[in-house]
Amino acid sequence: MFESLENIDRDIFLFLNGLHAPFLDQVMYQVSRQWLWIPLYLFILWYTWRKTGWKGLLFLVCGSAVCVLLTDQICNLFKNSVERYRPTHNSEIGSLVHTVIAPSGEEYRGGLYTFFSGHAAGHMAIATLVFMNLKKYSQWWTLLFGWALLIGYSRIYLGVHYPSDVFCGFLCGGLVASTVFLAIRFIRHKLESK
Question: Tell me: the pLDDT tens digits for 18-29?
Answer without folding.
Answer: 998 988 999 999
